[in-house]
Amino acid sequence: MPSNPAKLKVIWLQGITCNGNTHSFLNDPLLRSLLEKIDFLHHPLLPCAKTLKELVKKLPKSDILIFEGAYRADFERAGVRMEELLNALASKSKHIISLGSCASFGGMFKEADSEHISGILFDKEEQNGPLKEMRDKVITLSGCPIHPQWLSFVIEMIYAEKKIMVDEYRRPKELYGYLVHNGCLRNEYFEWKVDSDSFGTKEGCLYYAQGCQGPYTHGSCNKILWNEVSSKTRAGMPCVGCTEPSFPKFGLFTTKTYMSIPAEMPLGIPKRSYLALSGAAKSFHIKRLEGKLIDDNA
Amino acid sequence: MITHELIERIEGEAVLDFKTDKSGCVIEADIRFLHFRGMEAILEGRNALDALVITPRVCGICGHSHLIATVRMLEDLYKNMGIPLNITQKAESIREITLACELIQNHIKWLYLIMLHESNNLLAQESELSLKALFVASQVNQLCALFSGQWPHSSYALPGGVSCDPTHIEVMQGLKILAEVEKFVADEVLGCSLEHFSALTTREDLLSLSGDFGEVLRNFEALNLLDEGKSHGRFLVLGDEKIAIDQGKHCDADISLVSEDDSQTFAHGGKTYAKNALYNGEFYECGPLARALGSGYTNIAALYQSYGDTSLTRITARVNEILILCSQVRSQLSSLDLSQPSFIAPPPIESISGEGIGIVEAPRGALIHRARIEKGRIIRYSIITPTQWNLGNGTTSNLGVAQCSMIGAESIAKASLLFRTFDVCSVCTTH
Q1: In terms of domains, do A58 and A199 share one?
Q2: What's the pLDDT at B428?
Q3: Is A53 in contact with B131 (Cβ distance < 8 A)?
Q4: A24 with A162, same domain?
Q5: Nearest alpha-carbon partner for B35 in B14, B64, B56
Q6: Cα within 13 Å of Cα(A92), Cβ side
Q7: Phi first, then psi: what are they for B383, rounded to 5°?
C-alpha cells in the first residue's frame, strides 16, 4: 500500500430522516483523523465540495455512498426523486453504507406509511429494497442512531482495503456479533434472576419488568460505549432493540410474557435451558444481590 | 423577479421564494418546507410510554427537548387525573442538566457550522471545518450522556423521574467537562472572560471581541447585515415562566391563546407542509432572544434597547445563552443531592385517560406536545415546534417573523443569511 493513499470520495445522501445519524457522527472524538482519509463530495451539514443543488445536476462517481434515512421512491431531494437519485449514485459508487435503522430496514419512518417506505436493501426482514441488485456492495449499519465509531470503523476498513465480515443483514460481524446484553453492568442480576422493581436504581435486571431487549439485540453498545462514557442500560434505560429490523416494536417498555415466562427467549437459548437455569437461580436468595450496590449504612 | 432558493444545511432543506426589485432588493420572501414524515400519526394507537422513544426521533439535534416535552405531557396527564406525581429535586435537576447540554451543543454548532461558515462564504473568505467546535460539542454531549446514557436519542426520562442513578463519579466528571467547555467559550468563542462579555452592551464593544463570535459579527458588519433582520418586536416564552412581550411591554402568556394555522399548507392548496404557530392570532418570535428579554438579562435587554431585534441582538442573545446555561449546569451539578430517589413509580399508564400538555424551551424556542390518552393508549398527539413560530409563512399584510426580517435585504444571498440567524431546522418544522 502506498504511504499516502488517495482520500476516499464520499457522498452522504439523506432519505426520510431526523438527522440523528449525522449528529451522532459528529460526536466521533477522532473525527479529525477520519477526515484525513475521506473527502466529502457532499454532506448535508459539513463543508463539502458540492451543495445538494450542485450534486443533483451531475451525479458523480464516489468510493462510498452513505445513505441516511428511509427510502421512498417519490421522496425528493433538490427536486429529484429518490428512485433516480439513489439508484444512480449507488451504481456509481464502489461501496454503499446503509446508515441507521431507517436506511437499513425502514425503521421509525416506515411506521408512517409501511407500504411505500423501506430501507435501501431490506424492507424490515425482507431483502426487497431498491438496491437489492447491488447487495454485495452494501454494508448495513443499523441503529437509531448509529454509533459514530461503528461508522468510522467501516470507513477505516474500506480505506485499508480489508474484508468486512457480515451477517445475514450485511451488518459487520465484528460490531453486531455481540448482543447489547454483553457488557451490561447488570449482567449478574440477569444471571441470578434478580429483576429491577423500578426505574432509577443501579440494581436489578431490566429484562423482565422494564422491557429491556438487550438479550435479543445485536450491537456493541456495551462494548464501545456511547459518547465514550455510557449506554442506555448503564443509564438504567432498557434497550429498545433499535438495531433490529423489528424496531420500533409496539410496547417498547414491556417484555411480553406468557404465564409469567418471557414470550421470547434470549437469542438462541432453548426454552428448556432458560427455564431450568432461571428456575434454579430464582430458588436461591443471594443477599448481596438483593441489597443496594452502594450502601452507606453497611 | 422571482427566485426559488434552496436553503441547505438546516437539518434538511427549505425553499425560499424571493420576489426582488430591479436592484435585487428583496420585496417578498415566502418560506416553504417540502418534507413531511407524519410523526404524530406514528404515535397514535401506541402505548403512551412508546412516545418517550418515538418523539426524540423528530429531530437529530433537539431530540432530547422532545423527550422532555413528552415526559412533561405525561406527567401533566397524571396531574389532570388527580394524581400529581412527586418528582424529586434530583430528578428535576438531572433533566435540566441534560436539556441544557442539548441547547449548548446546538448553539455551538449553529455559531460555527452555520453563522461563521455561511458569513465567510458570502464574503468569499476561506472557511475551514471547525473541528475544535465539533470536538467541544461532542464533549457537551458526553456530559449529557453521563446521565442520559447517550446523545442523540436517549429516552432516560420517564414519568416519575429519570432512569439513571448517578454516583459522584459522574458528577465530578461532568464538572470537569464543563470546565473545559467554559474555557473553550472564553478562549475561542469570545476571546475574553465570561464576566467581561456579560458586561458588554454596545455594538462597538462586541465587534472588538477577538474570538470567533467577534469574527461572525465583523462578517455581518462587512455585509451590512448587523443592523438588519428586524422583525415584529413580539416575543414569546412558554417555559416555566410564560411571558409574551409586545414592543417592550411584558405580560403573562396564556397557553390557550396558542393556535396553529394550516391555511398555507398543501392540504389547503398551499405550497408548504409547515403549519404556522400563532399567539393571539399573531406571529411571535421565540428562542434565545425571547428568553433573554423574558428573563431580563441586562446585557441583552440593553442591546435590544439600543439596536432592536437586529441580527446583532439576535446572534448575541444566542451566544449569551451558552454562558447562562453553563453557569446553570455548574450550579445544578454542584448541588445535586444524590441521596434522593431518581424515580418514584407512578400508577400504571394503562390506568390513565385524559389530556396532557408538555412545554419545553428547546434550543430554538417554545416546543409544545399535547396528547389525548385513553387507558394508556395514544388517541391523538399534536406537536408545535419552535421553528413553526419563527419560520411561519404569512401573507404580505401579515408577515411571519423570519419573513419580516428578510424584507428589504439588499440581495437574496443576504436575506438567506438573515434567515439562518433564526437557527433554522427543517425536520422539526414539519415533523
Answers
A1: no
A2: 87
A3: no
A4: yes
A5: B14
A6: 14
A7: -120, 130
B224 torsion bin: left (phi>0), alpha (psi -120 to 50), beta (else) = left
- Count other C-beta atoms under 10 Å from residue B310's C-beta: 24
Whether A19 and B427 lie within 8 Å, measured CB to CB:
yes
Q: Spell out which residues of chain A touch residue B113, defining contact as CB-CB under 8 Å.
A: 45-46
The pLDDT value given to residue A273 = 96
CA distance linking residue B266 with residue B271, whole number of Å: 5
Contact A228 B142 (CB under 8 A): yes
CATH code (residue A226)? 4.10.480.10
C-alpha cell recorded at residue B431? 415533523
Would you call A112 and B58 a contact, using CB atoms and an 8 Å cutoff?
Answer: no
Complex-level ipTM beyond the 0.90 threshold: yes
B137, B108 in Cβ contact below 8 A? yes
DSSP class of residue B286 equals -
pLDDT tens per residue across span B26-61: 999 999 999 999 999 999 999 999 999 999 999 999
Report the residue from A29, A108, A252 with minimal CB separation from B49: A252
Chain A residues within an 8 Å CB radius of B52: 252-253
The number of distinct structural domains making up chain A is 2
User: How far apart (Å, rounded) are the C-alpha atoms in residues B61 and B59?
Assistant: 6
Same domain, A22 and A166: yes
| B-chain residues near A52 (CB < 8 A) | 6, 8, 13
Residue of B35, B93, B134, B173 best to disrupt the A interface, most CBs of A under 10 A: B134
The helix/strand/coil state of B39 is: helix
Asked if residue A36 and residue A171 are part of one domain, the reply reads yes
**Could you tell me if A172 and A187 lie in one domain?**
no
Whether this prediction's pTM lies above 0.90 is answered by yes
Nearest by Cα to B322 from B121, B33, B106? B106
Indicate whether A246 belongs to any domain: yes
Q: Where are the beta strands (DSSP E) in B109-193?
A: 157-158, 161-162
Residue of A nearest to B426 (CA): A18
Interface test with B, best of A16, A227, A231, A232 (most B CBs within 10 A): A227
Q: Cis omega before residue A262 (within 30°)?
A: no
Domains and CATH numbers, chain B: 2-430 (1.10.645.10)
**Do B134 and A19 make contact, defined as CB atoms within 8 angstroms?**
no
What confidence score (pLDDT) does residue A3 get?
58
Distance CA(B11)–CA(B129), nearest Å, equals 17
Q: Is the pLDDT of residue A159 over 90?
A: yes
Instruction: Please provide residue A271's backbone torsions phi and psi, each rounded to the nearest 5 degrees.
Output: -55, -40
Inter-chain residue contact B173 with A111, CB threshold 8 Å: no
Enclosing domain of residue A241: 178-289
A73 shares a domain with A103: yes
Give the least confident one: A248-252, A292-296, B176-180, B361-365.
A292-296
Task: List the grid coordinates of B385.
Answer: 415546534
Contacts of A31 in chain B (CB under 8 A): 131, 134-135
From A176, A208, A229, give the residue that closes a domain.
A176
* Amino acid identity for residue B48 in this structure: A
Torsion of CA B343, B347, B350, B356, to 10 degrees: -70
**Are A46 and B150 within 8 A, CB to CB?**
no
What pLDDT, on a 0 to 100 scale, did the predictor assign at position B179? 98
What type of residue sits at position A102? Answer: C
Mapped onto helix, strand or coil, the DSSP state of residue B35 is coil
A133 shares a domain with A255: no
Smallest CA-to-CA distance from B102 within B58, B54, B67 is with: B67
Place of cell 470520495: A9
Q: Does the distance separating the beta carbons of A198 and B427 come in below 8 Å?
A: no
Q: Based on the domain organization, do A96 and A225 belong to the same domain?
A: no
Q: Is residue A1 part of a domain?
A: no
In angstroms, the CA A52 to CA A59 distance is 10
